[in-house]
Specification:
heterodimer; A: 285 residues; alpha/beta; 3 domains; 10-stranded mixed sheet; 47% helix; B: 231 residues; mainly alpha; MetI-like fold
Chain lengths: 285, 231
């Protein structure tokens, strides 16, 4: 009996090691692509639709790592991703200029919105300019929630503060969540504050929030997504073919058609507008 | 409140209809955390017994380190495992970042000190004389260790439950080293985080309930073994 239990423990350990090894080698045989992207593309459900199609068409296995645009680019900079789908244009240009990325191509856009409680204590509803709205929020010291995570949304928010000529850092009414968009919206709703959000995530969460869209339509609020292949010349371990295949797939006609209608059935309006082949400057005009 | 009821309904529905996605996530959670726990038992019990039975200088520091390890923050473990497993990191050649194998490694690192610490305490609280008695009866050292382990069965099974409970409910490391990839490295905890940020609170609650049910079933089985000889 004694020995039996001992043998059993050893057997279990061997079995478990097999599972460990098995699960890692199973993957080594298929070609994989690491896609580093923003939470908004995953949280909206768009990638759940697109990636199975790509995998079926090409035989690649896609590992989607959904983080903020800042972290996505940091992964690319270290050669830990093959292709990026991000929405932080200024940082992207720098990323490509420094040689970390190649072949930056426009995929789609939607827009940012300023949301807040229906009571709107800062009276910003209907203001056309985002920076004017931010100025008003600052002047009445209404609570503003910032993501502060170097995401595309956070970068955009800082651009708007800059254009408003305000440095909100350290102000009492300016609180930093350090969380993703969904959670930041929840915090904003709980605290009845204001925040900047991408329309897709806001629409997806709207029913539980009780926040209204107060400012929209300003050109500065444009939210543009690009795909960038990580430069294989910098990092030899990067899957150049896989990255290119995914980027090509994103700009393909078939994919762009899917983007065009995605979300219409659920939200009554599309979440993203396909832009492949267009120039960034043409948008919002 | 409505939301919680909605979640319970959803959980029931997902279980009754045997939703394939949920089944896969549940099975993967069990597989990953189960494997990690087994590895941690192997390392934790053997090292724990060894430290418990030996005397050496600096022993108190080692014991303090083990006891501190029982509270290792999973995100910190996740961060270090990620850095080690990066393609261009020291263990990058393995190519296992963002795989279930990486999650097993991270979870085993989290569970091992828990098992080790409880084992250490369990073996040490056995009466000193017992060891001498066993040896006096002519047992070999290995036989003595085996008898001690059997004597400490109750707290050791508690170690199993603590280790398993620690990793099945863990999310920080799993999301960092596993990546929460659909149908591949998505487990109950990481799926719950994702559904919460998607605003699908009912599904998130449902997944939470399934996680609790799973943990209860496993602990019920282990408790059955633990309390077998009690009426």
């Amino acid at each position: 009996m004694k020995r039996m239990i001992g043998i059993r423990i050893i057997l279990w350990t061997i079995v478990s090691l097999f599972i460990l090894i098995g699960s890692s080698t199973a993957l080594a045989q298929t070609k994989t692509v690491i896609l580093s992207t923003t939470t908004s593309t995953q949280d909206s459900g768009l990638l759940d639709v697109l990636i199975p199609i790509f995998e079926k068409n090409t035989g690649y296995f896609v590992k989607t790592i959904a983080v903020g645009s800042g972290q996505a680019m940091a992964m690319g900079q270290k050669g830990e991703a093959d292709v990026l789908l991000v929405h932080s244009p200024a940082a992207e240009k720098k990323f490509v200029a420094e040689g970390y990325g190649i072949n930056r191509r426009i995929i789609m856009h939607n827009d940012f919105i300023i949301v807040g409680p229906p009571t709107d204590s800062a009276k910003i509803k209907g203001i056309k300019s985002a920076s004017e709205a931010f100025k008003k929020i600052a002047s009445v010291q209404a609570l503003f929630l910032s993501r502060s995570d170097k995401s595309g949304t956070h970068t955009k928010e800082m651009d708007i503060w800059k254009s408003a000529g305000i440095k909100p850092d350290g102000e009492k009414w300016y609180q930093q969540t350090g969380l993703g968009m969904g959670q930041t919206l929840s915090v904003t709703a709980e605290k009845k504050g204001y925040t900047l959000a991408d329309r897709g995530t806001y629409l997806a969460l709207k029913k539980n929030l009780g926040l209204d869209i107060l400012v929209e339509g300003d050109a500065i609020l444009l939210n543009i997504y690009h795909v960038i292949e990580v430069n294989p010349a910098k990092w030899p371990k990067v899957s150049a073919d896989g990255g290119k295949a995914f980027a090509d797939f994103m700009v393909s006609k078939e994919t762009q058609e899917i983007i065009k209608t995605f979300g219409v059935d659920k939200f009554g309006s599309p979440l993203f507008f396909p832009d492949a082949g267009k120039k960034e400057e043409e948008l919002g005009k | 409140m409505d939301l919680i009821l909605e979640g319970i309904k959803k959980a029931f529905w997902l279980l009754v209809t045997l939703d394939p996605e949920v089944l896969r996530i549940t099975f993967l959670s069990l597989q990953i955390s189960g494997t990690a726990t087994l590895i941690s038992l192997f390392i934790g019990i053997s090292t724990g017994v060894m430290v418990a039975l030996s005397r050496f200088t600096g022993r108190r520091i080692v014991v303090s380190l083990i006891n501190t390890g029982m509270g290792l923050p999973p995100v910190v473990v996740g961060l270090f495992v990620t850095i080690f497993l990066w393609r261009n990191g020291p263990l990058g050649f393995l190519g296992i970042l963002y795989t279930p194998a990486a999650m097993i490694i991270a979870q085993a690192v989290i569970a091992t000190p828990i098992v080790m610490g409880i084992t250490l305490a369990a073996i040490q609280q056995l009466p000193q004389k017992l060891r001498l008695q066993i040896l006096a009866l002519g047992a070999t050292r290995l036989q003595m260790v085996w008898i001690l382990i059997k004597e400490a069965k109750l707290p050791l099974l508690a170690a199993v439950m603590a280790g398993f409970g620690g990793v099945i409910s863990e999310v920080g490391a799993s999301i960092m080293v596993g990546g929460n990839i659909k149908g591949y490295s998505r487990v109950l905890t990481t799926a719950t985080v994702m559904e919460t940020s998607r605003g699908n609170f009912d599904i998130a609650i449902a997944l939470g309930i399934i996680l609790l049910l799973l943990a209860f079933c496993i602990n019920y089985i282990i408790t059955q073994i633990q309390q077998r000889h009690r009426a």
